Amino acid sequence: MMVHLEAVTKRYGSRGAAVTALDAVTLSFGRGSFTAVMGPSGSGKSTLLHCAAGLDRPTSGSVTLDGVDLGGMSERALARLRRERIGFVFQSFNLLPELSAAENVALPLRLSGKRPRRAEVTQALERVGLAGRRRARPGELSGGQQQRVAIARALIGAPGIVFADEPTGALDSVTAAEVLGLFGTAVRGGGRTVVMVTHDPLAAACADRVVFLADGRIAGELRQPSAGAVAERVTRLAAGGLAATGPAAAQAGPAW
């Protein structure tokens, strides 16, 4: 397994007013898999991603990433692991406006103390169809092009896993489909693991598996999902939370 969460609980706030964002979640993401995570607002989607990526520490339970238990690691060691083994893609792109596309892509390598090779950066931009815009700054690029730069940046260090938080939320449907195709290529062509939080059934249907959350707990999953099946499940969850899934649907299938 690339990532395994075992009985992960995450609470925020003081004891008297604590909010449970995740409630004893056990879940795995296998190597070379593409998983979408969905659920109503407040269901724990982003918290799950943050705990799995080592951005946030669970209140209890354990997270193992590529064989490494994150629980006993210092903040410095966690930061190094994220730089070397994980790629991140966000809805807001998170590009530095004063840097060119090529410089933004090269940034993770520089932060790791490496000297990026021009050919390496060019190849990363070629993979996302932007080799001709290497000198353009983010403000000179469309939203879709900026997200492509963000994906190239996430992949340049050859991470084993990419976490994407609403990566198509700011894009039109055509551009979103192109971006999702790049994730599919990263999985099937590069053997990487992609975990994507999304609210969009069409985006989720591009994944191999959809995991549903409700009230901070696993509320079932779909394999080889269709957009219609995903939308129907999300509608039921939004209407009734975990109780709406029923005992059978609330049982997640075998982990990848």
Helices and strands in order, then pairings?
Blueprint: E1 3-12, E2 19-29, E3 34-38, H1 45-52, E4 60-65, E5 68-69, H2 75-85, E6 86-90, H3 101-111, H4 118-127, H5 143-155, E7 161-165, H6 173-188, E8 193-197, H7 201-204, E9 209-214, E10 217-223, H8 227-240, H9 246-249
Parallel strand pairs: 3-8, 3-9, 6-7, 7-8
Antiparallel strand pairs: 1-2, 1-4, 4-5, 9-10
Helix pairs in contact: 3-4, 3-5, 5-6
Q: Can you describe this structure in just a few lines?
A:
By secondary structure, the protein is α/β, with parallel strands linked by helices.
Description:
By secondary structure, this protein is an alpha/beta fold. 36% of the residues lie in helices and 24% in strands. The protein is built from nine helices and ten strands. The protein has helices at 45-52, 75-85, 101-111, 118-127, 143-155, 173-188, 201-204, 227-240, 246-249, and strands spanning 3-12, 19-29, 34-38, 60-65, 68-69, 86-90, 161-165, 193-197, 209-214, 217-223. The strands form two sheets. The chain has a six-stranded mixed β-sheet, with helices on both faces. A hairpin with a 2-residue loop joins β4 (60-65) and β5 (68-69). α3 crosses α4 (118-127), α3 packs parallel to α5 and α5 packs parallel to α6. The model is unreliable at 247-256 (pLDDT under 50).
